[in-house]
């Protein structure tokens, strides 16, 4: 590392923002360069002075209350109600919520509402929104006869296809032996970002597997399954990815698919 | 928007960062009341855009909104006619008053009222430098987080922090001479 480079990187060295390699190279230069050492000590001294000067001030006590009070009216009620155990007004869900039924829990009738409420509690709003987008995206791909951008049963063809098209590398798993042959992959746009979609098949039923890196969206690691507009949806986390599978196949088939996938991903 | 769950999530994820928001706003405005107004405005904006928030750590996200609220306020409140010259990384990174910035650690060990002088020096610092110093040294954010809040490349965060510290050193040395 030459003198000019070292001089440039000094602030990041003070802030412990260099990679181990850069740190090593910089320290080698520092040991033999008086002027860089001087510069480093100066940067370090200013940083320490500021940190020691206790300049941070907390917000006044009443600011949190003022912020809450300024949020939209309904929000205030909600915030106040938070202290009491809250009863959910079951029938007044948004229209699409009533269509949510957890997989395999019920037949129909009075149980349906209770189960829908249970699922509503289980899935946070972002989850519901993603599920809605998922159905739309899946249906659109079928309508436009555009299930795949890359069509191949070979995962060594499909996986590299995503290189450079995404800022992450989705795991591509071959499940032909388990009865779910890979058909191909495509890019789609969901939840405000470009996502990877792998298309599998169970007999005549396509199964779309949507993946993108984990974020706050989602419901944790437990699979949350649902039926929406006649499509069966499973959601789980795996290999650092938020995964959603959607299909018109049955519950057992989707369960088998998810289990096989997780088993392979884990191995 | 008014779903109780969203409000609750907002309060859990975003409200705890109120002190950071206030601290940054206060160092940008130099004024407690203005800082308060800006934080309140920022929280309203944050709540409106909360749907679009992704991730687990809302602090950098909130601070970028605080910063935007501040700059909106700053543009509106700047007295007419007092035009601030456009910030230039190179020109404004030069040593102040032609002095060679003293980075001698011993010279920085100011004898009395040291903390008050550091605060004074920081207030004198150009806003582009002040904000990166506050985000780094007071709020302890990473280069990556600062880059996303200020909207500059990580390399610029590094060089700006370096220049900011040099200027602070010069300002501190100057106040020391006055004393």
What can you tell me about this protein's structure?
The complex is a heterodimer of chains A (267) and B (179). Chain A contains 9 helices and 7 strands. Chain A has 267 residues and is an alpha+beta fold. In chain A, strands 1-2-3-4-7-6-5 form a 7-stranded antiparallel β-sheet, with helices on both faces. In chain A, helix 1 crosses helix 2 and helix 1 runs parallel beside helix 3. Chain A is elongated and about 75 Å long. The two termini of chain A are 43 Å apart. Chain B is globular, with a radius of gyration of 18 Å. In chain B, helix 2 packs parallel to helix 4 and helix 3 packs across helix 4. Chain B has 2 domains: 74 residues, RNA polymerase sigma factor, region 2, helix turn helix motif (Rna Polymerase Sigma Factor, Chain: A, Orthogonal Bundle); 88 residues, Arc Repressor Mutant, subunit A (Orthogonal Bundle). By secondary structure, chain B is an all-alpha fold. The interface between A and B is large, with 50 and 58 residues.
Task: Provide a quick synopsis of the model.
Chain A is α+β, with helices and mostly antiparallel strands.
State the CATH topology of the largest domain in chain B: Arc Repressor Mutant, subunit A
Give the percentage of residues in beta strands of chain A. 15-25%
Output the structural class of chain B: mainly alpha
Distance between the terminal alpha carbons of chain B, to the nearest Å? 55 Å
- Classify the helix fraction of chain A into a percent range: 40-55%
What is the average per-residue confidence, as pLDDT of chain A, rounded to a whole number? 78
């Amino acid at each position: 590392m030459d003198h000019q480079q070292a001089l440039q990187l000094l602030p990041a060295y003070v802030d412990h923002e260099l990679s181990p390699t850069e740190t090593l190279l910089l320290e080698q230069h520092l040991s033999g360069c008086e002027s860089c050492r001087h510069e480093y000590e100066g940067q370090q001294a200013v940083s320490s002075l500021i940190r020691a000067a206790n300049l941070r001030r907390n917000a006044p006590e009443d600011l949190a209350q003022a912020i809450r009070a300024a949020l939209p009216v309904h929000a205030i009620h909600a915030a106040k109600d938070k202290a009491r155990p809250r009863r959910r007004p079951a029938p007044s869900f948004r229209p699409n919520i009533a269509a949510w039924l957890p997989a395999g829990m019920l037949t129909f009738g009075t149980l349906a509402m209770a189960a829908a409420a249970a699922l509503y509690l289980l899935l946070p709003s972002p989850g519901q929104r993603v599920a809605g987008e998922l159905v739309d995206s899946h249906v659109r791909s079928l309508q436009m006869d555009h299930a795949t951008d890359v069509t191949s049963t070979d995962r060594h063809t499909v996986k590299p296809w995503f290189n450079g098209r995404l800022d992450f590398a989705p795991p591509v798993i071959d499940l032909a032996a388990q009865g779910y042959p890979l058909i191909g992959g495509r890019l789609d746009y969901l939840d405000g970002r470009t996502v990877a979609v792998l298309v599998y098949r169970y007999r005549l039923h396509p199964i779309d597997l949507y993946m993108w890196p984990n974020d706050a969206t989602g419901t944790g690691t437990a699979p949350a399954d649902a039926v929406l507009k006649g499509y069966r949806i499973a959601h789980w986390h795996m290999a650092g990815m938020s995964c959603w599978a959607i299909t018109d196949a049955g519950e057992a088939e989707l369960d088998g698919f998810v289990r096989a996938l997780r088993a392979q991903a884990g191995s | 928007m008014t779903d109780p769950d969203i409000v609750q999530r907002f309060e859990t994820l975003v409200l705890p960062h109120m002190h950071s928001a206030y601290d940054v706003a206060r160092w940008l405005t130099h004024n407690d009341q203005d800082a308060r107004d800006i934080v309140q405005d920022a929280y309203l904006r944050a709540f409106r855009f909360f749907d679009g928030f992704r991730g687990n750590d809302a602090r950098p996200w909130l601070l970028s909104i605080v910063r935007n609220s501040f700059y909106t306020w700053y543009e509106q409140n700047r007295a007419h006619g007092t035009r601030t010259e456009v910030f230039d990384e190179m020109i404004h990174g030069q040593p102040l008053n032609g002095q060679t910035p003293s980075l001698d650690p011993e010279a920085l060990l100011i004898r009395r009222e040291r903390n008050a002088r550091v605060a004074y020096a920081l207030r004198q610092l150009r806003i582009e430098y002040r904000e990166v110093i506050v985000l780094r040294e007071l709020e302890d954010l990473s280069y990556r987080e600062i880059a996303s809040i200020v909207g500059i490349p990580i390399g610029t965060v590094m060089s700006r922090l370096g220049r900011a510290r040099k200027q602070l050193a010069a300002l501190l040395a100057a106040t020391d001479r006055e004393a």
